[in-house]
Every structure is written in C-alpha cells, then in structure tokens.
Amino acid sequence: MCKESVFPAYLEAVKTDPTLTFEQFVADDNYEVPFQKKNDHPEVVTAEGSGRTAVGPFVNFISASKSYKMKAGDILICYGTGSSGRLVGHAAMATSANYIIEMPGNYRKIKGNSWRSHNARVVSKASFFKSHTKGKDYVAVYRNNHPIYSDRASTYAYRYMYKKDNPYYKITSNIFEKSPSYCSKYVVLAYYWGATKKSWGGGHRVGIIPPHQLPSYFSDSFVPSYKYKVTSY
C-alpha cells in the first residue's frame, strides 16, 4: 500500500509544498486507518444480508450489493491503490439509495498550461463500488446523525453543485470557495452550503481536506459515524 499508493501520492503533494515531510503526510492521512469515534458501534452484516449489533468498535466486511442499504447523504471514503492521486484516497456522497455524486481528479488540459475540468458527476451504486472494491481496496461508509440535513446536502450537491454550477477541479487551500473544488472538499461544502453551516467543525478556514480525514472536519453532533466497511459488490 505504501509503495503503490501512499508514497506516489506524497511525491505529487511535495511538488506544491517542498517542506512537507513524508511523516507529516501520512499523519495527515491518519496512517491509512479510517476515522472512528469512540462510541461508534457499526452493524455487523453478513454477505447474505442478516445482521446484528456489534459489541465494541468492530466493522465486519460486507457486500455492497447484498447488505449495504445506501441512504442519501452517506459519505463514502475509499481506501486502496485504486484511490490515489494528488491526495491518498477518494471521497463521494450518496444522493439516493442507488446513485452517488463525486468529483474525481481526472482533469484534462484545456489551454496552454492550464489544467481545468468540470469533474462532478453522478454514478450508479454498482459502478462506484465495483471500481473501489477490487482486490484489497474497500470503502468506509459514514452516516450523519441528522437525516434531514443529510438529505438537504445531497439534494443541494445535485441541483447546485452539479446541474447548475459544476465546479472546476483543482486542489486549493481555500476551503469555502465553491469552485475550484476536489472530492473531499466537495462533500464538506455540500453540507456546509446545502444543509447548515453548523456542520463545519474544521476550525481553520484555509487548508486542504484529506479524504481519509474528512469526517473530522464536521462539528459535534454532525461528526458522522463509521457504519460499514464494504469490501465487495
């Protein structure tokens, strides 16, 4: 994982920040360990769909096609070699039980040395999980404790951050600027602008939001719970 995913991403990151050490980079990425609150009690679900409540902070391996019942506003964070780029990992958000909105980093060259592209897109649940659960890759599913706000965030993302004003893709340190944007910032802004500004808990108003640290950028009761670890579809 370090050789094929984390270190190549660090080499990309250090191009724009020469002072960034590898130790700092992996620490910011939470050492490839999913963010988890102390009182999270993920549901243990078998591939056949039967389930029970887990005792302690353990996450069972489940199949997205048979067990995971996706809900609007679910935050999906990808781990593995197939989810690398300028930042390690990838983040997206469910807009319904069957569709996901995301902003991947496959930008293209348009004019001169300018790299810009409208990258927000909607993909099916099947397409997303098949792409991000190959081999040892998996998706950590987080769910907000405010279903009304979750629904508002996903609706806003689709209507205003995709259909109306699809942002350009670029990683910048201005967190609250709607465009340009990137995968994890895109999810945070959907909640911030579309649901409530009270959801923001990152403290600093500038910086980069690493995908694997995304849950920690929410405030208090808006910090999502780690619900599932999906390893297959």
How would you describe what is shown here?
The protein has five helices and eleven strands; from the N terminus they run H-H-E-E-E-E-E-E-E-E-E-H-E-H-H-E. The strands form three sheets. It has a seven-stranded mixed β-sheet, sandwiched between helices. The protein has a two-stranded antiparallel ribbon with strand order 1-2. Strand 5 and strand 6 form a beta hairpin. Helix 4 crosses helix 5. The radius of gyration is 17 Å and the shape is globular. The two termini are 21 Å apart.
Brief digest:
By secondary structure, this protein is of the alpha+beta class.
Describe this protein with a few key phrases.
seven-stranded mixed sheet; alpha+beta; 233 residues; 11 strands
Please outline the helices and strands.
Layout: H1 2-16, H2 22-28, E1 43-45, E2 51-53, E3 61-63, E4 75-79, E5 90-94, E6 99-102, E7 109-111, E8 114-115, E9 121-124, H3 125-132, E10 138-143, H4 147-164, H5 183-194, E11 225-232
Parallel strand pairs: 3-11
Antiparallel strand pairs: 1-2, 4-5, 4-10, 5-6, 6-9, 7-8, 10-11
Helix pairs in contact: 4-5
